């Protein structure tokens, strides 16, 4: 992994000639993403993210923290104990430079011997599951990191709207995927392309079913304006 996403974050923070990220998925065209968006303050965040930060309590784990904007809000404005993890070394370096007290390079699947009251997975938090088949493994891992009265706050989108309708009004979905929310995600930065990764969008009902099957309660907290939602999972 070239860590282009993290490099873009660090370039922006250190004013090292940052450029826009070019993102592309298996079901959408190339799109430009301004790195500045990753540095948004609370007032600039979508309502779903604001709601998740309002609900956060106790000892917090921010999974896939990126530039650390959610963690900084919780640490500085809410005075919460936040652990911020990301697999990107560059992103974590940026988080530390921005003043996060406990930011570390870590894969959620290898985190052991720690418990949290709130686990945050935002900006399509289900993305890291990769595929529907892998979802139970991630849910079991997240569950193992929760304190008894803990909560997992996670967002995603139902991307069924992106598929064409057939004559009967049904959706035409390619057959190569087990589930229509499974996509392949690629980013390009400064002319370099990152290795593609599996990225999962989960509709709420599918998330709820997966949660129940893995011993978790699931509650719909908030729906956004564009098929997106925030859910709360608990033991």
UniProtKB/TrEMBL annotation:
<dbReference type="InterPro" id="IPR025714">
    <property type="entry name" value="Methyltranfer_dom"/>
</dbReference>
<keyword id="KW-0489">Methyltransferase</keyword>
<dbReference type="GO" id="GO:0032259">
    <property type="term" value="P:methylation"/>
</dbReference>
<dbReference type="GO" id="GO:0008168">
    <property type="term" value="F:methyltransferase activity"/>
</dbReference>
<keyword id="KW-0808">Transferase</keyword>
<dbReference type="Pfam" id="PF13847">
    <property type="entry name" value="Methyltransf_31"/>
</dbReference>
<protein>
    <submittedName>
        <fullName>Class I SAM-dependent methyltransferase</fullName>
    </submittedName>
</protein>
<feature type="domain" description="Methyltransferase">
    <location>
        <begin position="58"/>
        <end position="189"/>
    </location>
</feature>
